[in-house]
């Protein structure tokens, strides 16, 4: 089995390899380190380095894979352990966690994002249901690190099993509280969480730190606990596989916990019986914000979903597209249109989109203003059908 360890699994520049071709590496061994903003990368399995390119380290995994892993070095603080472990935002953002947790929020709040916002994905909730006490411990570590006054767990109320487990795990914790999020997409957006939990309306481009808050995904907190308590680096990822696979039980979503980073997504599709023909595309991530992928794409620190989509209908009508930060923007919609053999003749953005530092952001995520005016404009430009991406409010 060939592992492909991407050198950029985080916000920032690609990491610099610290191993050589032909070198035998152990699970947990440091194989690449950042040159600036970034996060350490560790081997996820025992094996031999076969190739090093500008973008990845390729490792041929051994047939025998002991459970033991190389532990991160001893550190003077929890924050240093998080840095050594190479923890990044596991929900998809990939921002280096040790940099985020350095933020000055003394007297503020740490919020665990347990929204599991994208439809179909289920691995966060499976972890919470079975390891709620561990999640609470992780939140307590982060409250201590950041000098926050309180920790919140933000979750949708329909996740009943997870709520019961969290209630039991946190009942004796005076500064840990469960807060409800609305059952809509994108409830897991950081600005939505700050708005719903703290009552602060962040402007497009503003970070939660403006509201003296730090927000971390469930799996990021899981990795914090592993680094502090087990000295374990980030070498695995929790995943959900769904869609056009042959295993009927997996079609609505099959969870893989602690999947080795670097394995191809085809490995996990095969664990679900393989692809059921015909199909459309491989989507890496969730239905709203996932990207087109290939079967040889590797699992990374930020990958949460592997979805084999339905066949994409062929479209002969001229398309107009409406882009939205909460879902897909121009590049993704253009890609989908191309897979449909469709011609795009007009483009527009949701009226809530506003430009901030060269990027279009939604000024009120989760509150769709309606698109009738935009639709009529696209129709006047010759669009005969629409391809649209928006929030689900």
* Fold-level CATH name of the largest domain: Rossmann fold
Spatial strand sequence of the major β-sheet = 13-12-16-14-15
Oligomer: single chain
**Helical proportion, percent range:** 10-25%
**CATH hierarchy, class of the largest domain:** Alpha Beta
The secondary-structure element order is EEEEEEEHHEHEHEHEHEEHEEEEHEEEHE
- Detail the poorly predicted runs: none
Form type:
globular
What's the number of extended β-strand segments? 21
Number of helices: 9
| Class derived from helix and strand content | alpha/beta
The value of Rg in angstroms is 21 Å
The name of the CATH superfamily of the largest domain reads NADH-ubiquinone oxidoreductase 51kDa subunit
Approximate strand percentage: 15-25%
Domain NADH-ubiquinone oxidoreductase 51kDa subunit FMN-binding: 82-225
Domain RnfC Barrel sandwich hybrid: 5-58
Pfam family, one: Complex1_51K
InterPro entries: Ion_transpt_RnfC/RsxC, Nuo51_FMN-bd, Nuo51_FMN-bd_sf, PR_assoc_PrdC, RnfC_N
Structure, explained:
The protein has 393 residues and is an alpha/beta fold. It starts with a strand and ends in a 5-residue tail after the last strand. β6 (47-52) and β7 (56-61) form a beta hairpin. It is built from nine helices and 21 strands. The model has no long low-confidence stretch (mean pLDDT 95). It is globular. The longest helix has 24 residues, at 123-146. α3 (123-146) crosses α6 (218-230). Helices cover 24% and strands 25% of the residues. The protein folds into four domains: 2-61, Beta Barrel (OB fold (Dihydrolipoamide Acetyltransferase, E2P)); 78-230, Rossmann fold (3-Layer(aba) Sandwich); 236-308; 319-388. The protein has a five-stranded mixed β-sheet. Keywords: 4Fe-4S, Electron transport, Iron, Iron-sulfur, Metal-binding, Repeat, Transport. It comes from Peptacetobacter hominis. InterPro entries: Ion_transpt_RnfC/RsxC (IPR010208), Nuo51_FMN-bd (IPR011538), Nuo51_FMN-bd_sf (IPR037225), PR_assoc_PrdC (IPR031001), RnfC_N (IPR026902). Residues 82-225 form the NADH-ubiquinone oxidoreductase 51kDa subunit FMN-binding domain. Residues 5-58 form the RnfC Barrel sandwich hybrid domain.
């Amino acid at each position: 089995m060939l592992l492909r360890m991407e050198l950029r699994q985080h916000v920032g520049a690609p990491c610099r390899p610290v191993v050589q071709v032909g070198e035998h590496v152990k699970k947990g061994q440091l194989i690449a380190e950042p040159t600036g903003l970034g996060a350490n990368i560790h081997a996820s399995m025992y094996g031999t380095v076969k190739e090093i390119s500008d973008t990845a380290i390729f490792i041929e995994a051994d047939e025998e894979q002991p459970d033991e892993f190389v532990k991160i070095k001893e550190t003077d603080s929890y924050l240093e352990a998080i840095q050594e472990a190479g923890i990044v935002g596991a929900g998809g953002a990939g921002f280096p966690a040790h940099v985020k947790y350095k933020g000055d929020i003394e007297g503020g709040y740490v919020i665990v994002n347990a929204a599991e916002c994208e439809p179909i994905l289920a691995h966060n909730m499976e972890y919470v249901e079975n390891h709620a006490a561990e999640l609470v411990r992780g939140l307590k570590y982060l409250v201590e690190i950041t000098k926050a006054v309180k920790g919140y767990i933000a979750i949708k109320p329909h996740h009943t099993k997870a709520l019961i487990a969290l209630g039991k795990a946190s009942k004796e914790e005076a500064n840990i509280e469960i807060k409800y999020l609305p059952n809509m997409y994108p409830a897991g957006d950081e600005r939505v969480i700050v708005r719903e939990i703290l009552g602060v309306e962040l402007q497009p481009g503003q970070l939660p730190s403006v509201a003296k808050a730090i927000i971390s995904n469930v799996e990021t907190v899981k990795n914090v606990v592993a680094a502090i308590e087990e000295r374990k680096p980030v070498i695995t990822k929790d995943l959900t596989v769904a869609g056009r696979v042959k295993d009927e039980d997996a079609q609505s979503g099959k969870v893989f916990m602690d999947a080795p980073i670097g394995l191809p997504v085809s490995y996990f599709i095969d664990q679900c019986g393989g692809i059921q023909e015909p199909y459309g595309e491989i989507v890496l991530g969730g239905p709203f914000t996932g990207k087109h992928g290939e079967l040889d794409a590797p699992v990374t620190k930020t990958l949460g979903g592997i979805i084999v989509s339905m066949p994409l209908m062929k479209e002969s009508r001229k398309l107009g597209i409406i882009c939205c930060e909460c879902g897909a923007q121009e590049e993704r919609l253009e890609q989908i249109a191309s897979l449909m053999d469709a011609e795009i003749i007009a483009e527009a953005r949701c009226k809530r989109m506003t430009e901030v530092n060269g990027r279009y952001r939604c000024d009120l995520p989760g509150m769709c203003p309606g698109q009738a005016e935009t639709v009529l404009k696209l129709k006047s430009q010759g669009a005969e059908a629409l391809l649209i991406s928006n929030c689900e409010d």
